[in-house]
Inverse folding.
């Protein structure tokens, strides 16, 4: 009888040991498959993110280049630097009218904001809010302050007051390569 109990206990022990090993191997395999699936998904997301970032940069660069290549735009911005408040209003209206069609096309490509900002960080023109201007952005927009200070392009993902998005801020130079205005796309 004792021998029978020992044999039963032995088989129970073997059964639980075997089940434990199978369970352990199954769990390792499951975790490995989950990790591979997640790594694959993360890799695809990273690729899509890089494609979107690249597309956004190309889009913003295109907007920038096609804006500053226009003599009329540079002339307006140059005049605005030394203009009176009344003259700036006329120049702002001219720039808005000149770029409005372009801005409508840009909105279809996902560009929601298109700004022109002075070297002193004062907003000259917001295409999306034409009636809001002459406010100092030094305390609220570190990227603009940085571009004006370092005279270099800055890009990034930024949280705005109403929404977040990819922002590209460019310095704009005049005829004598003087920094004139920021173009925030």
């Amino acid at each position: 009888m004792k021998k029978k109990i020992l044999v039963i206990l032995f088989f129970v022990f073997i059964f639980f040991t075997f089940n434990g090993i199978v369970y352990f191997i199954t769990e390792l395999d499951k975790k490995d498959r989950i990790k591979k699936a997640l790594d694959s998904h993360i890799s695809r997301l990273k690729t899509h993110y890089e494609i979107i970032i690249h597309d956004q940069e190309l889009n913003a660069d295109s907007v920038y280049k096609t804006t500053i290549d226009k003599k009329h735009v540079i002339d307006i911005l140059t005049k605005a630097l030394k203009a009176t408040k009344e003259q700036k209003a006329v120049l702002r209206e001219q720039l808005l009218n000149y770029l409005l069609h372009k801005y409508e096309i840009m909105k279809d490509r996902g560009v929601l904001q298109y700004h022109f900002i002075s070297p002193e960080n004062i907003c000259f023109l917001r295409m999306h809010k034409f009636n809001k201007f002459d406010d100092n952005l030094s305390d609220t927009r570190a990227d603009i302050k940085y571009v004006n200070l370092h005279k270099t392009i800055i890009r990034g993902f930024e949280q705005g007051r109403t929404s977040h998005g990819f922002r590209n801020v460019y310095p704009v130079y005049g005829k004598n390569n003087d920094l004139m205005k920021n173009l925030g796309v």
DSSP finds four helices and five strands in the chain. The first helix runs from residue 2 to 68. Residues 60 and 185 are 6 Å apart (CA to CA).
